[in-house]
Amino acid sequence: MRSAYELITDPREVPARIGELAARTVIYDVEPLVAPWDSSQDALDRGIAEVVGQAAQIRGVRAVCFATNSARRPSRLPAGRPGLQVRYVVSARKPLRVGPYADLPGPGVVVGDQIATDGILARRIGYSFLHFQPRRDSMPAGPHLLSGCGEVLRPLLFARPGRP
Fold first, then answer.
1. How confident is the model at residue 38 (pLDDT cuts 50, 70, 90)?
2. In what order do the strands lie in the sheet with 5-8?
3. How do beta strands 85-89 and 5-8 pair?
4. pTM of the full predicted structure?
5. Distance between CA atoms of 131 and 111, rounded to whole angstroms?
6. On the CB side of 92, how many CA atoms lie within 13 Å of its CA?
């Protein structure tokens, strides 16, 4: 069975789509959706606070998880609203490790920019994948190369792009 896949061109569309999909859990890739690559600690902390604030407004969302393959950590995690779990998985080793997400309530959505990491993680844990594609000229070399590999994998992992 193929997991749901949707291409997102504007990250401002993400909260509405999460609500439409009736997700209880949202897993966000940190770079570039929460904070730009190689940005400051302040940018990371502001991005996390903004995403938690958005998630707290989406009906039905019970958990928001930030996952990054880097060693980058926030100064602190905002609480959100009562009943909203907030967690941050550092050095996540996406898509190999799935244990950190095992106790999160389903259904869920992974929001990320890389099919080869975020998309495969979504597929492995049975979540939908909202694929944000940043402009290629804004990407560092590593993510740019990984993005090309992901395009080869997309037809093998997911149905055609679009809304289900």
1. confident
2. 5-8, 128-132, 108-112, 25-29, 63-67, 85-89
3. unpaired
4. 0.87
5. 6
6. 23
Q: Which amino acid is at 98?
A: V
**Residues in the chain, how many?**
164
Residue type, 155: P
Residue showing tokens 């069975």: 1
Identify whether the C-beta of residue 93 lies closer than 8 Å to the C-beta of residue 116. no
Q: Which candidate, 35, 38, 46, places its Cα nearest to that of 11?
A: 35
The tokens describing 11, both together, are 């990250």
pLDDT tens, position by position, 107-152: 999 999 999 999 999 999 999 999 997 666 765 556 545 565 657 6
**Nearest-angstrom CA–CA distance, 158 and 76:** 35
User: What is the number of other CB atoms lying within 10 angstroms of the CB of residue 73?
Assistant: 15
- Joined together, the tokens standing for residue 90 give 């550092």
E strand segments, the chain: 5-8, 25-29, 63-67, 85-89, 108-112, 128-132
Dist CA 18 CA 26 (whole Å): 8
- Please give the structure tokens belonging to residue 144: 């740019």
